[in-house]
Amino acid sequence: MIVLLLSQLLAPAWAVAPTKLGDVTITELQSDTTAVPPYYGEWFEIYNNSGKTLTLNGLLIERSTQSLLIPASPPIDIGVGEYFVLGASAERNEDVVGYNGNVPVDYVYSYFTEFNIVSADDVLRVSYDGILLDEVDWDSTWAPTADEALQSQPNASANEWANDLQLNWCSSGSVIPSGPGMNGTPGGENDQCGDEYNVDNDGDGYAEFQGDCDDEHADINPDMIDGIEAPNGEANDDADCDGVRDDGVDDNDGDGWTEVDGDCDDADINTYPGAVEALDGDDDNCDECIDDLDMDHDGYSHTAAGAVNPCGDDCDDTNDAIHPGSQEIPYDGVDQDCNYLEACDEDHDGYDAVVDPNCVSPEGYCCDGFDCNDANADVHPGSVEDNGNGIDDDCDGIVDIPDKDGDGFTEQDGDCMDLGEAEGYPAAQVILSAQVNPTAKEVCFDQVDNDCDGWIDNESACSRDAAVATVRGGGLCGVVEGGAAGVLVLAGLMVAAARRDRRGV
Question: For a disulfide at 336, which of 118, 287, 293, 326, Cβ 3.0-4.6 Å?
Fold first, then answer.
């Protein structure tokens, strides 16, 4: 009889099979109960130490004379760092036949026809497809106590070689909540064992709770080096208790790489640095990323959809010119260096180039600044306008007009006569021009609009009758506009005045 809980029918599609020793470890077991019949109260617990979501379909559990194979369907999985409890009954209601002592059981087997654990002398072994994952064995000198689960130390739960040691096991001191007084922590992390596990028994400076995985031998502790300073151990013993046998100096899978060389799974011949990454839930090339693919072979990967550990950073894995570190081409709407930004400040003046109205790339890929000349660091919003260079220095949309005669005013400022020697004007005219600007005082009878107010000789102090006709009407007074037109008008007025003087007018 096999009973599956509803939660086990919802296994995710990305669960993978265990592949090596220690992927699954046995962490707790209860085989001797008096508070409830053992054929209801027996259970044991396993732990996922692989770093991947594992399928338990096909998992083989054996004892000395029996075996239990979890069938291929329905799907059953165990998440990363999770515990999974298998037991003779899942009934937690004490008023119902089959009451197990309020133990949360994930998978139920038949105590009578399939499997049962012997307390006095037995072995419990877990394997998958012929690969041994973990094994715990005991005899009458080291056996579960009635109604007290036998548990491994928390620091040994994730290491199959550490929980092989008797000193890393003890009777659980935690009472199962709402139960009949049985001890255990089914489905959760085990408690620290008693005070004797806080003692440094071998005098090497480390107690078990400090990471000593064998506190009976002083040459086994976190300061040791496997195979060199561990004469009492075999070459593959974990003398330094780091979870890596032999410190990676042997190529255990024959792929040409050791753990020291960077082989992140020395039990899999297809896993090593430089291997081709496949969409298989494993870090095949040992770059600490799972299912990161390099489709354009530029040395940078992207992460496939649904990857377990996404960390690829190639933003376009179909183009080998696009990857982190590539040369960014400004203003093209393409993110060559995968920083999710376009190059917009090429003159490094702190202002981005102006908006490109034709840019249709995603947000961040178009320049949206206000620098009207991104090739000149002196040109940007807020820059001081230089009225002599013919450039829109402050990017206000207006190209400056120079002050040709040096009187402090340009035509843009209202200077109605702004002549300069650079334009070929005689020095006398330039001198006259410098005396004409909006702040100058009107000079009587010179037929010049000295203050650029649009009127000639219009001061009240001028005793001579000023003409009132406009320039259009042929008279000598009127609004005189600045710029080239103003210059022509002034020149005409000066000629007319000279003719009057010759006629004696």
Answer: 326
